[in-house]
Specification:
The chain is an all-beta fold. The protein is built from one helix and 37 strands. The longest helix has 4 residues. The chain starts with a strand and ends in a 7-residue tail after the last strand. About 5% of the residues have low confidence.
C-alpha cells in the first residue's frame, strides 16, 4: 500500500483525468472496448475504489472554460431562428478532417401561447461544418427547400417522419460504401403528420428510434426502425454510442416513480409522480435492445430538486469519463457535472457543484445547457459542445396559470406548464484533459490530509503522480506493508517532498525510487 500525505496540494490520477493521478508505472491496463485517447503523460483514471482509507481529503472538480468565441453560431435562418439546438453530434471526421455537426434547429416562436406551443413540433435535423471547430457555417445543400430558399442546411424535414431529436452519428472509414451511420428519434405524432417515417411505420408511442446510413454524411437513407426495446418510450434511446467491436450502448433519461422523501416541484413539467433519472440499454446489432438498466439518480448528497437529463461519455484508460446534464427543477435550469465509471453502469460524481456553471439568465447558457453526443479530445484538451439557452425549461412566475401557489413573498404557478421555446446558440467549453478533478486536502492550510491506496504488488515499479502543490505545501508518500507499517527506507521522512506543478513526476526516497 501507498500512503500519500500532504497539505496545500491536490492530485489526481487519470492518466487522463483532471488533476488526478496516482499511478504505478509498469502496471498492466485492463482491456476495454474502444480506444481511449491516451497521451504519453496521461495516467490512469483515479476514483474512490483506488483507496483503502482516506483522512481529511475530498474531491476537487475543475470547471470548464467557455470558449472565448462563444456563441460559435447564433440563430439566423428562418428554420433556426428559434434555436441552433443540440440533441445531436459534433465530431472531427476521420475521412476528410473537417469538424461536423448534426443537430436540431427550430424556427422562432415570437408569441408563446402556452399549451399550444409549437416549438417542440418543428424540430428539424440540420448540418454544420467547420475547419477549426470554432468558426462554423451552414453548407448550402439542395436536400430540403424552405419558402424563399432553394438551398438550406436542413437534412430531415417534417414530412420525412416528423420532428427529429438526438441524432447519434458515427463514422467508420473501413466501411467504404456506407461510412456514416446515424440513429435519430423521430415523431410524426408531434408534427401532426401521418404515422410513418420515410417508407417505414411510425412509432407506437410519442417518439421512436430510427437508423440511417449515408455515403457523405449529408444525404441520409433510412433502413431500420422503429427500434425494438422493451418499454420503449420518448427517451428510451437518446444518445447511442457505437463500440469498437460493433455493439451499441444507449444512455437516456428515464421517467421513474418517486421514492420516499422525493420532492416534486409544483411547476415542473414532468409527468405527475415521476422524476428524471438516467438509464442504459445495450444492443449487439443496433436493432434489438436490452431492458433498461438504471445508472444514475439523485442520491443523499443531491438537493431534493435535482434530476438528470443526459449522460455523454468518453472512454479513458481505466474506465469512462462523462458529462452529466443535471436539471435544477427549482430554478428550471440545466448545467453540467463531471462523472466517472469503471464499467459504464455504476457512475460516480466527485462533487455536486457544476463543472460548467450557468452564466446569468439571458446569456446563452444562462437558462439551460444541452450537450452533444460525446466530448471530443484534441491534444490535451477535452471539448464539450452544447446548445446554450437564453431561457428556462418552463415557467415559474407566470400568473396566467392557475391555481397559484403562494411561497414566502412570491406568487408562483401551481400546475405544470409546457416547455418554453429553446432560444439557443452553439457553444463550447474546454477542460485540460489530464486535469478534470483531483483528490485534495479537505481542511487546507497546514492540516495534513492522507490517502492510503489498496494493497498491491509494487516491486520493480515507480510511483507517478499528476500534482499541483500550492506555495508553502508539499506532497509526500510512504510504502506500507501488509500490516500497515512503513517500509524502512520508504517512509514519509525518507520521501523527497514534491513541490510545484507536474502533469507527471516520480517519487523518490532514500531507499530508492
Amino acid at each position: 500500500m501507498v500512503k500519500i500525505a500532504s497539505h496545500k496540494w491536490w492530485w489526481g490520477a487519470l492518466g487522463i483525468l483532471p488533476i488526478l493521478p496516482l499511478t504505478l508505472l509498469g502496471s498492466s491496463v485492463d482491456e476495454t472496448d474502444g480506444d481511449p485517447p491516451t497521451g504519453s503523460t496521461q495516467l490512469s483514471l483515479l476514483m474512490p475504489d483506488n483507496f483503502e482509507s482516506v483522512k481529511l481529503v475530498s474531491w476537487r472538480v475543475e470547471e470548464g472554460e467557455p470558449d472565448a468565441h462563444n456563441p460559435l453560431l447564433e440563430p439566423k435562418m428562418p428554420w433556426d431562428s428559434g434555436g441552433v439546438m443540440a440533441h445531436g453530434t459534433v465530431l472531427r471526421d476521420p475521412i476528410d478532417g473537417l469538424w461536423k455537426a448534426w443537430q436540431v434547429s427550430t424556427p422562432g416562436e415570437s408569441t408563446f401561447i402556452g399549451l399550444d406551443a409549437r416549438h417542440e413540433h418543428q424540430r428539424r435535423l440540420t448540418y454544420l461544418e467547420s475547419s477549426d471547430g470554432v468558426n462554423w457555417y451552414r453548407p448550402e445543400l439542395s436536400l430540403v427547400k424552405w419558402p424563399g430558399y432553394e438551398h438550406t442546411n436542413i437534412l430531415l424535414d417534417l414530412d420525412s417522419g416528423g420532428t427529429s431529436a438526438y441524432a447519434s452519428v458515427s463514422v467508420n472509414p473501413a466501411n467504404r460504401e456506407w461510412p456514416y451511420e446515424m440513429f435519430v428519434l423521430r415523431s410524426p405524432y408531434q408534427a401532426g403528420t401521418s404515422n410513418h417515417v420515410g417508407p417505414l411505420p411510425g412509432p407506437t408511442g410519442k417518439l421512436g428510434g430510427y437508423r440511417y446510413r449515408s455515403k457523405d454524411g449529408m444525404d441520409w437513407q433510412i433502413f431500420e426502425g422503429p427500434l425494438q426495446a422493451s418499454g420503449a418510450g420518448g427517451g428510451s434511446f437518446s444518445y447511442i454510442q457505437r463500440e469498437s467491436h460493433g455493439s451499441y450502448t444507449a444512455f437516456f433519461k428515464s421517467y421513474q416513480g418517486m421514492l420516499e422523501g422525493d420532492r416534486i416541484i409544483p411547476y415542473d413539467n414532468t409527468p405527475h409522480g415521476s422524476l428524471r433519472r438516467l438509464a442504459r440499454r445495450t444492443s449487439l446489432d443496433g436493432k434489438t435492445w436490452s431492458e433498461e438498466t438504471p445508472v444514475l439518480g439523485r442520491d443523499w448528497r443531491d438537493p431534493d430538486y435535482t434530476q438528470f437529463m443526459e449522460l455523454c461519455p468518453i472512454k479513458v484508460q481505466g474506465g469512462y469519463v462523462a458529462l452529466i446534464t443535471a436539471y435544477d427543477a427549482a430554478n428550471q435550469t440545466t448545467f453540467l457535472e463531471l462523472a466517472a465509471s469503471r464499467d459504464g453502469v455504476k457512475w460516480w460524481r466527485p462533487d455536486r457543484r457544476p463543472a460548467l456553471p450557468n452564466p446569468p439568465l439571458g446569456d446563452y447558457g444562462g437558462g439551460m445547457m444541452w450537450q452533444m453526443q460525446h466530448p471530443i479530445v484534441e491534444g490535451n484538451s477535452m471539448h464539450v459542445y452544447y446548445a446554450g439557452s437564453e431561457g428556462l425549461q418552463s415557467e415559474i412566475f407566470d400568473t396566467r396559470f392557475k391555481p397559484r401557489l403562494e411561497v414566502g413573498n412570491e406568487t408562483m404557478i401551481g400546475s405544470p406548464t409546457p416547455t418554453l421555446p429553446y432560444n439557443t446558440a452553439l457553444c463550447r467549453a474546454s477542460w485540460r484533459f489530464d486535469r478534470l478533478w483531483a483528490l485534495v486536502s479537505s481542511a487546507g492550510g497546514v492540516t495534513l490530509g492522507e490517502a492510503v491506496t489498496k494493497p498491491g504488488d509494487v516491486a520493480g515499479r515507480q510511483l507517478a503522480v499528476n500534482v499541483r502543490v500550492k506555495k508553502g505545501g508539499a506532497l509526500r508518500a510512504e510504502l506500507l506493508d501488509t500490516d500497515n507499517k512503513p517500509v524502512s527506507g520508504f517512509t514519509l521522512e525518507d520521501c523527497e517532498p514534491v513541490t510545484g506543478d507536474y502533469p507527471q513526476t516520480i517519487f523518490s526516497w532514500r531507499g530508492g525510487d
